[in-house]
Amino acid sequence: MSTAQIRPSATPVVYRAMWNDDRPGLHELAARSFRAWARSLHPQLGGGHHTSPEAPSPSQERQQSQPSTGGDGNGASDTRVNLRRETAAHGGVSETLLELDQHILEGSSLVVMRVLTNGSDSWIWVDVEMPGDRHGTVSGTGVQNLVCTLLDEAERGGGRPRLGNELLRTSADWAEPRRDFMVPFADRIRDPARRLPYVVIAYDPLGSPAKDVDVAVVTAQQLAGLARVFVLPAQSLNAFQVVMGEEWYVTPGEARLYLPGEHEPHRHRTLAPEFVRSGTDETGRWFGRLLQTMLVEREPPDLYRRSRQLLGDRRERYEPPPDFDAAERAAALEVEVEAVWDALYQARTERAAARAERDEQSDQLYGVLEELEGAQERIEQLQLLLDESRDEVSKLNAIVDRKVGELVAAGDAAMSPPLDASKRAYRQPTSVRDAIASARENLRKVEIPEGVEQHLEELDSALESRTWARSALDGLLALEAYAHSDDAAGDFREWCIRTKNPRKWPPSGKKLAMKESKEVMRQPELLKHRRFPVSTRVPDSTSGRLEMQAHLKLSNGSLAPRLYFHDDTRGTTGKVHVGYIGPHLPTKRFRS
Fold first, then answer.
1. Which tens digit of pLDDT belongs to each residue from 425-468?
2. Positive or negative torsion for Cα 33, 40, 168, 373
3. Would you say the C-alpha torsion 8, 11, 15, 21 has a positive or negative sign?
4. Is this structure's pTM higher than 0.90?
5. What is 81-145 written as a DSSP string?
6. Disulfide check for 79: which of 68, 419, 428, 492 has CB 3.0–4.6 Å away?
7. 169-295: CATH homologous superfamily?
8. DSSP3 helix / strand / coil % (the chain, rounded to 5)
9. Rounded to 10 degrees, what is the CA torsion of 581, 582, 586, 589?
10. Once rounded to an integer, what is the mean pLDDT over residues 470-484?
11. What angle separates helix 234-244 from helix 179-190, to the nearest 10 degrees?
């Protein structure tokens, strides 16, 4: 394996985990686990003989899966998978490299595992490379299952998987209320020399011990190799708060990520109880995205750097002719040394600039997250004030009377009571998928077919996911209120203009379109993206699909999500049918 073969890829690294493993025969053990993991994802990968990693000369083996064809029998290749292994020795260091190159319907990715040993030190290093900015889809590669398998096998085999002095685990640790545990635990959290991130999850008094365990188990597996997860049971929480102090502790139901290194307390991110209890995988998913942004910048082990030439492929050697005299040869060597120092200085300058840019981007990310958390806190405070105000009816009679008068004037009394906007409070959804689930459970005149969820991964992986989720639920409630109204004149836009129902959707062109543009309607390659699944009871939909033009504009920013619908409130079904919720569909000027 030459230096050129293993130089850093131009494809962005979106995931990185590395740790020490002391097991003898580490090269073959790790390679065997990698191959088994790859075949569990792609059974079409066959077996084969594998060369010993201790071979002194470079060796290479490659396995390639046969492309699988689509279900229509046309022979189009849907899947291409390559499994490759190389072994080499560099400066006394043995290295085994395994790669799983996946080209599948969900996208392309390259999972790379390096095993490095020199007799006294040994490392496992796992990277995931993806084209473009694909941080939100790392889970689709299955790499976390590989990391969990490697760590579990190392622990069972006496490999002591660790980073620095911290052991890595695939399970959560339970914080004990004893002083001899809690004080050293707090000291480790505040130690600027700590290299491994910590996640601390506090018990939830509104949940159950079983739910706390589920969240901890899933989070520990999601963050295996990236962070260590601790759980604070009820009896340990008070002791933790006392030894940590107000700026560092967690409150019941919260989860907090303590970053390695020296940081101000507010840099250690906290997730609110409502977010933690919204799903067993939400805590690990959120913290995993934050950690990926930081950990992909981690430097390779010293063992790896020592095994490479000082400047690798960038070094240009100058060899003088053999008939030069000693003075000429000395001058030539001086030229070579000067060139090496110039290249080294340039490399260090570029490295410093890259680190400065990384730090600036991290600060910008933290700033955005702080703004989002502040907005969420304000929303929760307003919701709390609204809930408390319902107990103070005597102080708010004037406001209540005015609202009731508006509802009566608008004819809202005809609406079904459980769906009346003034009498039912919907919880804030945490994702667009959550908003759809809430609508399916509660709405009676808005029908959402199965399959809408397949468009949601990009939306729910974005930082704006909560804002889009609330907008999606507001739009679905507006369509429900429209379907229940007795107004027989006009379509949904005209209803939004005339009605005083508080659930109405803004009727402006920036928020609502009842038809597609002429440009879209003239081009079949664009129009085909507007045919969506719908009930066969809807007229002109015997095939189960229908062209839809009317759509709500949930946002006009990043991804510009849209909600397409068909109005059959005066037809056979008496309902509004939703066909699509997802990123902006293709137009001549917008390519999704």
1. 778 898 999 999 999 999 999 999 988 887 888 898 888 889 99
2. positive
3. negative
4. no
5. EEEEEEEEEETTEEEEEEEEEEEETTEEEEEEEEEEE-SS-EEEEEEEE-SSS-GGGGGGGTHHH
6. 68
7. Glutaredoxin (3.40.30.10)
8. 45, 20, 40
9. 110
10. 94
11. 50
Q: What is the pLDDT of residue 62?
A: 58
* Eight-state DSSP code of residue 241: H
Structure tokens at 185: 């635990």
Identity of the amino acid at 319: E
Residue with tokens 């080499």: 88
Domain map of the chain by residue range? 3-66+75-159, 169-295, 309-382, 427-582
Task: Give Cα 300 distance to the centre of its chain.
Answer: 24
Length in residues, the chain: 592
Q: How far is CA 151 from the centre of its chain?
A: 22
Q: Find, among 445, 463, 454, 469, the residue nearest to 565 by Cα.
A: 445
Two tokens, residue 313:
């492929």
CATH architecture, domain defined by 3-66+75-159: 2-Layer Sandwich (3.30)
Q: What is the DSSP letter of 452?
A: G
Angle between helices 432-442 and 465-484 (to 10 degrees): 20
Tell me the two tokens of residue 305.
């750097």
Query: Helix, strand or coil for residue 449?
Result: coil
Query: For residue 126, what are its two tokens?
Result: 């796992």
Which residues are CB-contacts of 186 (< 8 A; sequence separation ≥ 6)? 240, 243, 244, 248
Name beta bridge partners: 567. Answer: 576
Closest alpha carbon to 585 in 545, 543, 525 = 525
Model pLDDT for residues 299-339, shown as the tens digit of each residue: 788 777 766 643 333 333 334 445 545 665 666 666 666 66
